[in-house]
Amino acid sequence: MTMRALLLAFALLRPADSERTPPKLPLQFSADLEITAHLVDRTKDYPPWLRKIKVHYDHTKKLARAEISAGYEAGRTYIRRYDTKREYMVKSGEFAECQRSYLGEAMPAPELPAEATFVEELQIDGKACEHWVHDLGVERVHIYQTADTKLPFRLMDESVEDGGQVTPLMTYDFKNVQLGPQDEASFQLPKPYTHKKCTRHIGGWPYLHVFHWYLRF
Asked: Beta strands 152-160 and 166-179: pairing type?
């Protein structure tokens, strides 16, 4: 067993640190998101192993926007207006279009697991960070947050086999995070589209998972 594995095992067995509380996701922010799929062959052009998404998120106002610039669905923008029960998909490029759909469900709450266990403090890109783990047996989720501002910025998901073999699955990285209420203009349809000009789409679109299933919209 490696030294890092020993450290993780020790952290998961020891009592919770009374001076620390598990990470919490912000309710209002914008960020550049990168999602890495570790099981995808990077030597091939398709399927893409990296997605880049500009995220505007405001759970307080019930608004969300995801502009995909690289990877699967590149060129698409999803706007979710839980406040008005409307959602849109806008596609740019040669076959530009806008579709609209009814959004009937409530906006999911951004909830990181309260059962997460503190593992260690470490340096990432020269910054002091905290490493937390949510261990589900067959799945292990690593959450990293800044030590000073307590801002979760990275999540790594891995599978764990019966023999102890670990396989990295997905990594979510938030960069250029800006906290605070989001400008409602960010959730308006781009010109020349309006609600009536968008084609009706029955059934809506699947959730976008932007921090594993802990943060989706």
From this structure: antiparallel
The domain segmentation of the chain, as residue ranges, is 3-11+111-177, 28-109+179-207
pLDDT per residue as tens digits for the range 144-169: 999 999 999 999 999 998 888 999 99
Cβ atoms 33, 172 nearer than 8 A: yes
Q: Count, in order, helices (H) and strands (E) of the chain.
A: 1, 14
Q: Strand pairing of 63-70 and 50-58?
A: antiparallel
Q: What is the pLDDT of residues 32-84, one digit of tens each?
A: 999 999 999 999 989 999 999 999 999 999 999 999 999 989 999 999 999 99
pTM of the model: 0.89
Token pair for 73: 């669905």
* HSE (side-chain half, CA atoms, 13 Å) at 2: 6
Angle subtended at Cα 143 by Cα 23 and Cα 180, rounded to the nearest 5 degrees: 50
